[in-house]
UniProtKB/TrEMBL annotation, chains A, B:
<dbReference type="Pfam" id="PF00356">
    <property type="entry name" value="LacI"/>
</dbReference>
<dbReference type="GO" id="GO:0000976">
    <property type="term" value="F:transcription cis-regulatory region binding"/>
</dbReference>
<dbReference type="InterPro" id="IPR046335">
    <property type="entry name" value="LacI/GalR-like_sensor"/>
</dbReference>
<keyword id="KW-0804">Transcription</keyword>
<protein>
    <submittedName>
        <fullName>Substrate-binding domain-containing protein</fullName>
    </submittedName>
</protein>
<keyword id="KW-0805">Transcription regulation</keyword>
<dbReference type="Pfam" id="PF13377">
    <property type="entry name" value="Peripla_BP_3"/>
</dbReference>
<dbReference type="GO" id="GO:0003700">
    <property type="term" value="F:DNA-binding transcription factor activity"/>
</dbReference>
<keyword id="KW-0238">DNA-binding</keyword>
<feature type="domain" description="HTH lacI-type">
    <location>
        <begin position="2"/>
        <end position="56"/>
    </location>
</feature>
<dbReference type="InterPro" id="IPR028082">
    <property type="entry name" value="Peripla_BP_I"/>
</dbReference>
<dbReference type="InterPro" id="IPR000843">
    <property type="entry name" value="HTH_LacI"/>
</dbReference>
<dbReference type="InterPro" id="IPR010982">
    <property type="entry name" value="Lambda_DNA-bd_dom_sf"/>
</dbReference>
DNA sequence: CTGAAAGCGCTTACAG
DNA sequence: CTGAAAGCGCTTACAG
């Protein structure tokens, strides 16, 4: 590998001059510039980012800590982030935290050593206190999918509003006895979606039978079990809004296994907008989260902060409803 | 951020000594060691990987270039690679090439500047010549999902064997008129799976009607169209082996839209083993590729090479058949 | 417009 | 067992 010294020697100038031309900084005679460029070309010289980082403190890398790239929700976030990073000459270091606090903390430390210019934390388990503490010794931080009140950038999607979208859709279809398969109460997004459901029902003047709200685990099995419980009720619901797609798919499976089908026997709506919803039968009505944009905006925020913007932002993106076949009343409202 | 100098000053020793204790290299008095460790603790000192890399040339990072993390095939590979990297204290830089030669080349250059210790290239479009050329100026390279004959590490899965697995399964079920929805001829894996199909049919002494081999595009739409063509034949097949799962799902959709169903009217088998196959109805029989292991082994190979192993390896992993409901003959063979 | 020098934060022989 | 010095490959004031 050629170094800046080799280029300088070949071009017959000092390393300072080479540095100036490759960075287009300071004055340099056009003739000299050409000679340097020729030498760069001849030696296939590529400046070492490592050396550059050591002096400038700018590594051109961003850390992305997410729970599990294998979970259908996260590749989109990663892709949005990587695309935006790419456009600005940045690279992404990918870290899977497995929803574990220790792995998050560990990676945060490693990324700091790695001299990343910013970190994106998706669905973090860290408390706000720890986060603010980390922020002192850390490069800029953006938290995705977690509402943060303190002085940390955050990007989230409107879960209350999204749940309202789903619930209203069912109301518009003419359903009144609407159940909710909720996510685990430990999850903030699950609580928010539950709230959106309750709020919308209340606004419509409809009381919610407590038996119609069943807690699931955000996984297929949980959705299945929850649906079984709903079907076992003396008066089962006409429709169910599930807090995520995996549970909705589980609910559909349970319906089928009980020889019923959606939407004829019960309307089903999911949440997230993962690919699977398009391939399942009946095609699932769902609330699509702007996952790609979340990753994209996170990098944008980081870049602005690196460039000196001081103000903390809390961006809330809007999900949108995608109507499939699983919730549409065929006989009309 | 505290530096090694700060630690040295606080502990009252030289930076050389600090370096020795944090790297556990060379002799150091236990008392001195303790003092240094105490200083490290007190200052929350974390050695800069950047500075260390500059002198040791070991950055602790590996580059992963794959076509698109959003494509269901790749997150598993990435996860396998990241897990193995994590175990050895390495980090992964994620790059999406969008199946484009230019992006691959560009990233290869950037990763070199970033001083990664190795690069994993998934489904590369680069020619073998270009690849060997790159290898001269580059850190160790491992190519995944692409058979390479030259002196480059490669990890692939046995596509011919996997296709044979699928085809034999259909034969065992008693089907004789077996069609193949192939992937695009430009894809090596598609050609290999086609070969596995042909070879198995020949071994069984069954001639293949050319009309039964239809080329698709590895996407849902292509599978749908191909199935439509098969259904339009005067003598449609009894079973079809699809070169990937997305096309198989498309084929299932077309069957359903034509008021037929699998496996009663036609048996369907896919390839890849993406999650979707488990949620589709009927549950799809498919050939599961060892994607996680491919990523894992790739990092292992890289690490061995970094440690000095000179011999080039071509690892071929074996896929396995997962029998679902889409291909099982209910009335018995 | 150009070059010499210092320095970024480490590691690594080399003396002692 | 410990420290002074050189050096990794750059950038950045500072002279000239």
């Amino acid at each position: 590998m050629a170094t800046i010294k080799d280029v300088a020697a070949l071009a017959g100038v000092s390393v300072s001059t080479v540095s100036r031309v490759i960075n287009a900084s300071g004055y340099v005679d056009s003739k000299t510039g050409e000679r340097v460029l020729a030498a760069v070309e001849a030696l296939d010289y590529r400046p070492s980012r490592i050396a550059r980082t050591l002096v400038t403190r700018r590594s051109g890398t961003i850390g992305l800590i997410l729970p599990d790239i294998t979970n259908p929700f996260f590749p989109e976030v990663a892709r949005g982030a990587e695309d935006e990073a790419y456009r600005h000459g940045y690279n992404l270091i990918l870290c899977n935290s497995d929803w574990k606090l220790e792995k998050e903390t560990l990676y945060l430390g490693i990324l700091r050593q790695q001299c990343v210019e910013g970190v994106i934390l998706v669905s973090t388990k860290l408390t706000e206190e720890r986060l603010t503490e980390e922020c002192r010794s850390l490069p800029p931080l953006v938290v995705i999918d977690r509402t943060i009140t303190l002085d940390i950038h955050s990007i989230s999607s409107n879960n209350v509003g999204g749940a309202a979208l789903a619930t209203k859709h069912l109301l518009v279809q003419g359903y009144r006895r609407i159940a909710h398969i909720a996510g685990p109460a430990s999850s903030i997004s699950a609580r928010q979606r539950l709230e959106g459901y309750h709020r919308t029902m209340a606004e419509a003047g409809l009381p919610v039978d407590p038996a119609l709200v069943v807690e699931g685990d955000y996984r297929l099995g949980g959705g299945k079990k929850a649906m079984a419980r709903l079907l076992a009720l003396t008066e089962p619901p006409e429709a169910v809004f599930c807090a995520n797609d995996m549970m909705a798919v589980g609910a559909l499976e349970q319906l089928q296994e009980s020889d019923r089908c959606a939407p004829a026997d019960m309307a089903v709506v999911g949440y997230d907008g993962i690919d699977l919803t398009r391939y399942v039968h009946p095609r699932l009505t769902t609330v699509i989260q702007p996952t790609y944009q979340m990753g994209e905006r996170a990098v944008q925020l980081l870049l602005e902060t690196i460039k000196g913007n001081e103000s903390f932002q809390h961006i809330e993106l809007e999900p949108r409803l995608a109507i499939g076949d699983s919730s549409v009343r065929r006989d009309g409202p």
